[in-house]
């Protein structure tokens, strides 16, 4: 375990090498949350509810989206496909480390960094808006934490899936960019998915994307009944199993054809 602890420390330090880039990324996230809070507060002026949400529950939703984006959706592996295609991944294959474990440590360090800055940003937003946050019971909060971890795992497998494209093609930026655009809509980042038509919601729930933040927030806000909680729990386990199996198979297939181009 000591080698993984050392790797975690090194990944944390590497993530703070380019401080200006880190600060600009966090400023972008802060401004996005600030803009969302401002827009929704304007919508709720003179209106006790909107789209079946109260003002307090919507403000809570926005803060949770910001938190889950830093915990679940943010990733240090955006350039993984380029690392594969360029041959850089050979450096990892030669080390006495599990390859997926190596990537997981990079992810943990990146998420810890984001959460650290998110705490500072949240304090500033609380001082500005002085919101009334809706908190669940202890049991629901613990389940929310478990579901958030499930979301981290699902997004990790999706990221590895896009990274595997580098085994066969250098043109990986386009699909990744398109995925992020779709994710902003399908994970509930821009607005709650339950304000959409029912037919469209059913289509989205046939994908793993709502489980990257939206479903967790619905649980936190107490908007799920027992049957829905059990159903979403099982579906998250299903997506973890399916994506994990497919990614493992795909990486094994890619490594068999890997030629370490450029090394």
Which oligomeric form is depicted? single chain
Model regions low in confidence, pLDDT < 50 over at least 5 residues: none
Structural class by SSE content: mainly alpha
Tell me the overall shape. globular
How far apart are the termini? 29 Å
Any idea how many domains?
1
Helix content: over 70%
Number of helices: 11
**Total beta strands:** 2
Helix and strand element order: HHEEHHHHHHHHH
Describe the main β-sheet briefly: 2 strands, antiparallel
Beta-strand percent range: under 5%
Mean pLDDT: 87
Gyration radius, in Å: 20 Å
The neighbouring-strand order within the major sheet is 1-2
Folded structure, characterized:
This protein is an all-alpha fold. The chain has one domain. Helices cover 70% and strands 2% of the residues. It is built from 11 helices and 2 strands. It has a two-stranded antiparallel sheet. The model has no long low-confidence stretch (mean pLDDT 87).
Present the secondary structure layout.
Blueprint: H1 2-15, H2 19-43, E1 49-50, E2 53-54, H3 55-73, H4 80-86, H5 90-93, H6 99-129, H7 138-163, H8 173-186, H9 198-204, H10 214-220, H11 226-256
Antiparallel strand pairs: 1-2
In short:
The chain contains 11 helices and 2 strands, in the order H-H-E-E-H-H-H-H-H-H-H-H-H.
Which labels suit this protein?
263 residues; mainly alpha; two-stranded antiparallel sheet
